[in-house]
Specification:
The chain has about 250 residues and is α+β, with helices and mostly antiparallel strands. It is built from six helices and seven strands, in the order ααβββαβααβαββ. Helices cover about 30% and strands about 15% of the residues.
């Protein structure tokens, strides 16, 4: 239902004559625009850091910047092979790294901040039945049409907020990844909690989960490699600035 134009004009005129209830402050739109502009700028450009400069000894193999991934090509938005994280997440990751180092282990990251355009790229790929380049390695047991239903692909990702990481354990002495039961990004029930995997792999998953949990991260039950900072500084859909040298 539309308001009467004459009544709307009268209310507008009265509003112009009404004094501000906040003496000494800017009123109306001018007062509202300043914080809105500041908030908008902050959300458009998150303050991210290269985690390898914050976490001593962190190994980075950013899969989506190259072709060794389930899509089989570099993903939109990955202009550099960098692990970008919020300051808070990077510091928490450093705590996990330090704790693991005492037992001879370290962390290797596969993905960190992920632009929203990359998530959109995954969605387009998932809806293309002809794009099957990575099936044999990354989803041999799953029909591609079921990737959304099973939770392996989604139209939004916590990675876009800058405080989620995909990672594994490495042996500090050799730099080699330790057995985890499945490779990173295998879309399979075997990648989730409660899967039947060898005892050594089960112990390694438990070690990673415990170290990340003590550092402030929560796991994702379907993917042993996926962790999100519980006290992440940003909420909502996240950001869309590319992964690049800043």
């Amino acid at each position: 239902m539309h308001a009467n134009p004459s009544a709307r004009a009268a209310r507008s005129s009265a509003a112009r004559r009404r004094p501000s209830r906040k003496t000494g402050r800017k009123t109306g739109l001018a007062a509202a625009l300043v914080p809105l502009f500041l908030i908008g700028a902050a959300r458009a450009e998150p303050e991210l850091v290269d985690a390898t400069r914050v976490v001593p000894g962190l190994v980075a193999e950013i899969r989506y910047a190259g072709s060794h991934n389930f899509v089989g090509r570099p993903i939109d938005g990955y202009e550099a092979a960098l692990c970008l994280l919020t300051h808070r997440a990077a510091r928490a990751l450093a705590r996990a790294q330090a704790a693991l180092a005492r037992d001879g282990y370290g962390l290797k990251v596969f993905d960190c901040y992920r632009p929203r355009r990359a998530v959109a790229d995954f969605v387009r790929w998932a809806r293309d039945p002809a794009a099957l380049a990575g099936k044999d390695e990354f989803y041999p047991e799953v029909d591609k049409r079921d990737l959304f239903r099973l939770g392996y692909i989604a139209e939004a990702s916590g990675h876009s907020r800058g405080s989620t990481v995909d990672l594994t354990l490495v042996d500090k002495a050799t730099g080699n990844e330790v057995p985890m039961g499945t490779p990173f990004d295998l879309f399979s029930p075997r990648s989730g909690e409660g899967a039947e995997i060898p005892p050594a792999a089960r112990a390694n998953r438990a070690r990673l989960k415990a170290a990340m949990g003590r550092a402030g991260f929560s796991p994702y039950a379907q993917e042993w490699w996926h962790f999100t900072l519980r006290d992440e500084p940003h909420r909502g859909p996240g950001f869309d600035v590319p992964v690049s040298v800043r």
